Amino acid sequence: MDSQQLPALVLGTNSNIHQTVFSCNGVNNKRMTRLSEAELYEFMQSIIAMNPDIKDPFYVLDLGSVKCIMDQWNSKLPKVRPFYAVKRNPDPIFLTSLAMLGSDFDCASQAEVKAVLALGVSADRIIFANTCKSEAHLKYAASVGVNLATYDSPYEIEKIKKMHPKCALLLQIKVGETKIGALPEEVIPLLRAAHMAHLPVVGVAFHLGTAVRHPEVYCAAIASAKMVFDTTVQLGMPKMYMLDIGGGFTAGPQFCEAADTINFALPFYFGNEQSLEIISEPGRFFAESSFTLVMNIIGKRVRGSLREYWINDGLYGSMTNMLNDPNCATGTIKPLAVESSPDNPTCHGLKTYQSTVYGPICNCFGTILTNYQLPELNVNDWLVFSGMGAYSSSAGYKFNCCDTTAIRTYLAYSKRGEPSMKENKI
Ligand SMILES: *Cc1c(COP(=O)(O)O)cnc(C)c1O
C-alpha cells in the first residue's frame, strides 16, 4: 500500500473500533505505510480534496505519534506501568491504540470506565483514580470488577465500604499545589480508618499536577510515599506493594529529566522493597502530540500590514484549552493554503505578515493567535494546529455553532514511530 492509498477513515458511530485500528496496521506489529511530515500534509490535502464542499474542522490522529510516544515511555521508564488518564482525550480509536500498545487506564468516572471496557480491555487494567467517587459510580465499578481506587478522606472509605467492599485502595497523598491528597497529619488516621473498614490499602498514589516543570518534585514525592509505606509497617498493617506516581509528564526533554529523576529516586527510596509494583497516570504525555486540528479560514480583513483571519472553531470549541491552559500551544501552527496557493500549499518561502487569528465567536475572548507570522492567506484556506490532543476534544462543549464532539477524526501513521518500527517489521 503506498501513501496515496492510506485509508482515510471517517469514524461513524457504528465503526468497529478494533477492526479499524487493526486495519490501520502499524499498531500491533503489523506493517504499514508511514508518512513523512510532507506526506502528512498531503494526506490532509487529500481529505480536503475528497469533500471540497465540506469546510468543517477535522482532526488527524497520528498513530505513528502514539506508537513513538509509547516507545519513549517504555525505553525511559520500563519499570513504570502507564495507566493513561482517559479524561485527557477519550477518543475511542486513540484509547484502542493505547490499549493495544500495552497501556492500562486511569478512569475518573463511570462513563470513562464504560468507554474503556467497551474496547474489550479487562477490568484489572483500570484504576478508578478519582478521590471523590459517587456512590452510583462505585456500585458500577463493583459490578464490573474495577477493584482498585484512590482515596484521601474518611467519607470516601465509608462510601467504598458500603458500595464496593472488595475494592483495594491507594492512599492519595498531597504533594505540591494540587487540591487532591491527604496531608501528612491525615495519613495515619486514614490508614487506620481503611483498616478498620476491612479495606486493604495496597499502596500510595500522588499526582503532581499537569505539565510538571521542576522534575525534582518527583524525588520529594517518592520520598514522602516511602514514609507512608514505612508508617504502614509501624502500624502493623499489611505491607504495601504499589506506588502510583501520577501524571504530569510532557513529551520532549522535560520527559527525559522527569524519567531520570524517577529512575534515581525509586532505587534510592524503594531499593529494599521487593516486588514493588510501580504505576503512573500519564494523560497529556500520550494525548497532546497525537492529534492535529485542521480548521478552515472563514473570514479575512486587511489593515495596513496586519492580516486578520477568522477560523471555524473557536476558543469555546476545541480550543478551550488555549484560553485556560498556560501549558497548551506546545505544538506548531502552519498554513495549508489549498485555495490561494495550491502549488505550494505549505507556503514554503513565501513572505509572511503579522497576523491575528480569531475564532468564530464575536466577543473579546475569541482571539486565538496574535502577533503571529503567517503568509498571505485567503478565505477557504486552512490552518493546521499540531499538538491539540490534550483536552481539546474532551474539554470543548457545545457553544454557538461549535459542537466539538461532532468533529471528524481521520487516522494517519506518520514516520515519527520509525526507529522502533524497524524492529517490528515482519
Ligand atoms: C488529570 C490527572 C492525571 C493526568 O494528568 P496529565 O497532566 O494529563 O498527565 C493523572 N492523575 C490524576 C489524579 C489527574 O487528576
UniProtKB/TrEMBL annotation:
Record bears the keyword Lyase = yes
Task: Describe the reaction catalysed, as an equation.
Answer: L-ornithine + H(+) = putrescine + CO2
Annotated positions of the N6-(pyridoxal phosphate)lysine modification: 87
**Pfam families in the cross-refs:** Orn_Arg_deC_N, Orn_DAP_Arg_deC
Keywords attached to this entry: Lyase, Pyridoxal phosphate
Q: Which pathway does the record list? A: Amine and polyamine biosynthesis; putrescine biosynthesis via L-ornithine pathway; putrescine from L-ornithine: step 1/1
* Catalytic residues, chain numbering: 362
For this protein, what is the EC number? 4.1.1.17
Q: Which family does it belong to?
A: Belongs to the Orn/Lys/Arg decarboxylase class-II family.
This chain's protein is named ornithine decarboxylase
- Identify the species of origin: Aquilegia coerulea (Rocky mountain columbine)
Q: List the lineage, top down.
A: Eukaryota, Viridiplantae, Streptophyta, Embryophyta, Tracheophyta
